[in-house]
Design brief:
284 residues
Length: 284
């Protein structure tokens, strides 16, 4: 049963890769066959950070016992759309695979990767996601949200505003324990978001060292709904309308310099601005 293991860590150089021995391949199948907790977390490697980004596992034989996987920071992520991901407690699978490298990894590479794994294990599942999110405003990067149909379909304007992929079509307040619907209004939606960790601000013309600025609007006239915008690294605004792709233009096709003044279609009520720190915000 041929299994190819690839360390995802380089940008310019080819990544190290090797084929597992029959014994190691069998051990891997047994490890993956454990009763593992399913999750909707995506691998933090999907954020596109530089440096070590986990281990790719490719089963070459047909039929393969498992889908191709990525093991990184406590998450076993399937390459198949709509397939569940699983928790890899203590990065058990990831650590095992790195130790099967033999002479493929140099001493420096092996030491660096082991240090990264140990750091992530200490911080808990998807710990490196939080470290990555300490950056200031995210860039406008629509491919992160639009290229994978599963991500595009299962993440909405609140996910996008928080720059957080949960694949749960996140709702304000749900991450902080609110059950059931809440009023779709500036007050109701705003309070729910505030419980999640969003910080209301009066003046959006700031450049926080961590996190970014988001804006809430409400539709009340033709139907009732809410919508969020996000200010990106370039100081312009973008958004993701529900199931549809992320974009940086308003309903007239113009770039958004101020969500208070852009064409928002039926979202006729502007509610206000919030300071969003994804590392301190709970959304679900």
């Amino acid at each position: 049963m041929p299994v190819i293991v690839t360390i995802n860590m380089y940008s310019g150089r080819p990544n190290p890769a090797w084929e597992l021995s029959d014994a190691d391949a069998q051990t891997l199948v047994e490890l993956l066959g454990k009763n593992r907790e399913p999750c909707k977390l995506k691998s933090p490697a999907s954020l596109g950070k530089l440096g070590y980004r986990g281990v790719q596992i490719e089963f070459v034989a047909e039929p393969a016992p498992f889908n191709s996987l990525r093991a990184f920071d406590g998450v076993l992520e399937s390459s198949t759309v709509d397939a569940p991901n699983f928790i890899d407690n203590n990065s058990e699978v990831e650590d095992f695979l790195v130790k099967t490298s033999g002479l493929t990894l140099s001493d420096d590479e092996a030491t660096y990767i082991q240090q990264e794994i140990e750091k992530n294990v200490r911080g808990g599942v998807a710990n490196s996601t939080n470290a990555f999110r300490l950056m200031a405003a995210p860039p406008f990067n629509p491919s992160k949200w639009n290229n994978d149909p599963n991500v595009c379909r299962n993440n909405n304007c609140y996910n996008y505003a928080n720059d957080t992929i949960t694949n749960t079509f996140a709702q304000p307040g749900r991450g902080s324990g609110q059950n059931g619907p809440y009023p779709y209004s500036c007050t109701g939606t705003g309070k729910a978001a505030k419980r999640d960790g969003q910080r209301p601000i009066a003046n959006p013309d700031i450049t926080p060292s961590h996190g970014h600025i988001i804006a809430l609007v409400i539709a009340k006239t033709q139907f009732v709904d809410y919508h969020w915008y996000r200010r990106d690294k370039n100081k312009m605004w973008s958004h993701k309308p529900g199931y549809d792709p992320a974009r940086n233009t308003d309903d007239s096709g113009n770039l958004i310099s101020d969500p208070r003044k852009c064409d928002r279609g039926p979202y006729d009520i502007f509610c206000g601005f919030y300071h969003c720190l994804p590392s301190e915000t709970r959304i679900r």
